[in-house]
Amino acid sequence: MKKSLLLISVLLVLTTLMFACATTGDLEKVQAQQKMSDAKADQALRDAQAAKTAADAAKVKADETSVRSENALKAAAEKEKAAAEMEKAAAEKEKAAAEKEKAAAEKEKAAAEKEKAAAEKEKAAAEKEKIADEKAKKAEAAFGKSMKK
Amino acid sequence: MERLQGLTETAGMPMRKVLAEPMCRISDPSPFCNRLRLTALCIFIFSLSGCAATKSVQKTAESIPSQLEKEIERNRFPVARGEDVIGRLAVIRLEKGDTLPDIARHFSLGINAISAANPGVDVWVPEAGERIMLPLSFILPDTPRKGIVVNLATMRLFQYKEDGTSLLVTTYPVGIGTDERPTPTGRMHVARKAVRPTWHVPASIAVDHRKKGDILPKAVPPGPDNPLGEYALYLSKSGYLIHGTNKPASIGLTATNGCLRLYPENVKTLFDDTPVKTPVLIVNQPYLIGQRNGILYLEAHAPTEESDALESEKLYKKLRTIEKKTQRTLDWKKVREAQAEARGIPVPIFELSQGSEKEAAKPVEVEHPETLYGKPEIPALKLEAWYVLAADVRDKIEAQRLAAIINHQGPPIPARVVQKSDRYRVIAGPFNDGSEAKKAAKRLKIDLEIEGIVIEPVKVN
Q1: Which of A19, A32, A87, B128 could be bridged to B96 by S-S, CB 3.0 to 4.6 A?
Q2: Contact between A149 and B205 using a beta-carbon 8 Å cutoff
Q3: Do A132 and B397 touch (CB under 8 A)?
Q4: Phi first, then psi: what are they for B153, rounded to 5°?
């Protein structure tokens, strides 16, 4: 058993030695390949960065646009709301004015009626007074007549 | 000013004594003397404020319009030399049941005078508590002051009498002739006098009465039905008399046939004071001007339509002369106002001596007498008496007025208002028998055109 194990180890070492002992050409080849891949990687990185910058700029722009549009929307909504409120206020004002006008008209009507009633009352009083005066005058005339011889 | 000067002068003396002396003896250490001075100073200060208080009281008293007086002169007045205004204006507070004719008679005024002085006051049913003016101030007519002077416009008679060196005037209200039969103006005299005269009915009056269904006898003997009353002064102008009356409420009315009527109580005095041949001057002066105490007054009475323009012109001429004499302008607005109002009250219009600070006399307030002289008495209702239903009306005032008018007939017919649910009945009576009630009903018909219903007595078993 010990012998087989030893053999295997020797084989392994030999294999390893075999691989380790590569040629200089191989090495240069590997190095060139590595350089190329580095350049490619750099290029990819730069591209990625540029893309990211562009994307960032686009995002900023998009964000800005979005904010602006949002603001515009908001402003429009507020304007609309204000307009609606104004309209409502105007309608209410109009309604109040109409009610006031109605109340004034009613008041005027009531005043006119009151005035009319007062005038009628006054007329009635004047009439009554006139009748009383006439009665008094008549009585006075009758009295004056009765005082003659 | 005089009163003020006097005050300063009398106040000056103690001031010198009290204030000057301590200054000389300021070193006097006596505490007794100091206290004495202090007391004297206090007394002086109090006396000063006392004077001020007295002054303020006097001022307050001046602002009170009048003082309540029990009596007021109404007929007899002295006439001061150079003065033309007599008497005083007065006011009285009416009581329930008063009528202006009753107030007028008590204060020897005519119904015309009291009505004109109190425009708007109901003659027959004035309000109790109302204050009314008694026009007991008169401007004497612009005539010689002797004998009897009658001013038809004011319906007042003035009788002048010399009393030693002074002149006395007695004045009475009168009733005068109607527009159809006016009292004549001009000079005449008392031709004769008669007590309890008989009235010989003039033909024109007999005709008037006949038209109303009242047949008058040719002569009416003395008594309650005689319109001449108890005394008569026959004037030299034939057919015209100054006499009494059986209708006292007619004084101050144009109700006679040209004669002059006086209240029964006044004609008696006039009769006794007037000898035969006394001159009588009858004038018509609606605008009177006269002065008293340096103030010029205007007394305006309602003129007749015909005389208005002429009398106004006479008045303005007199006033313009006064303006020229005094070289000052009259308040013509005041003159025209007094003229338009025609209240028959002397109105101050001009201060004759400028700066004299004389004031026109203010009216005095007279206490209401317990009973008014001559006020008709209404006997109590009796079951067994006869009555006349004179009216049945809805208006209380109308009923009261009618009852008052019936009460003031001559001879009087007693009448009262009796309320029956919401109506008011005017009941004349009580009368002792049916004939008396029928006679009253006839008089109501003839004199007042009232169709009265005779009410028989309630038969008591």
Answers
A1: B128
A2: yes
A3: yes
A4: -65, -35
The H-or-E segment that residue B429 falls in is strand B423-431
CA distances for B119 relative to A100, B126, B338, angstroms: 50, 11, 14
Q: Which of B447, B449, B450 to mutate to test the interface with A (most CBs of A within 10 A)?
A: B447
Burial class (CB in 10 A: 0-12, 13-18, 19+), B102: buried
- The pairing of beta strand B186-195 with beta strand B231-235: antiparallel
Domain positions in chain A are: 32-146
Task: Sketch the domain layout of chain B as residue ranges.
Answer: 2-63, 76-283, 287-360, 386-455
Are residues B401 and A132, on separate chains, in Cβ contact within 8 Å? no
Q: What is the pLDDT of residues B212-229, one digit of tens each?
A: 888 999 999 999 999 999
**Residue pLDDT, tens place only, B65-102:** 556 899 999 999 999 999 999 999 999 999 999 999 99
Region of residue B317 (phi > 0: left; psi between -120 and 50: alpha; otherwise: beta) = alpha
pTM of the model: 0.72
- 3-state DSSP call for residue B253? coil
The answer to whether residues B310 and B197 touch, using CB atoms and an 8 Å cutoff, is no
Beta-carbon separation of B405 and A145 below 8 A? no
| Residues of B belonging to the active site | 243, 259
The string of pLDDT tens digits covering residues B307-323 is 889 999 999 999 999 99
Give the residue among B204, B246, B252, B205 at the shortest CA–CA distance from B229: B246
Identify residues of A whose CB sits under 8 angstroms from chain B CBs.
Answer: 132, 135-136, 139-140, 142-149
Nearest to A139 among B175, B256, B401 (CB): B401
Domain topology for B386-455: Alpha-Beta Plaits (3.30.70)
Q: How far is CA B221 from CA B22, B205, B258, in A?
A: 93, 16, 20
Q: CA B318 to CA B302: how far, in whole Å? A: 19
B250 vs A132, A136, A147: nearest CB: A147
Nearest to B129 by CA among B98, B102, B105: B98
Q: Report the half-sphere exposure of B91 (CA within 13 A, side-chain side).
A: 14
pLDDT digits (tens, 9 = 90+) for B114-136: 999 999 999 999 999 999 999 99
Residue B376 contacts residue B410 (beta carbons within 8 Å): no
Specify whether domain B76-283 bears CATH 1.25.40.10. no
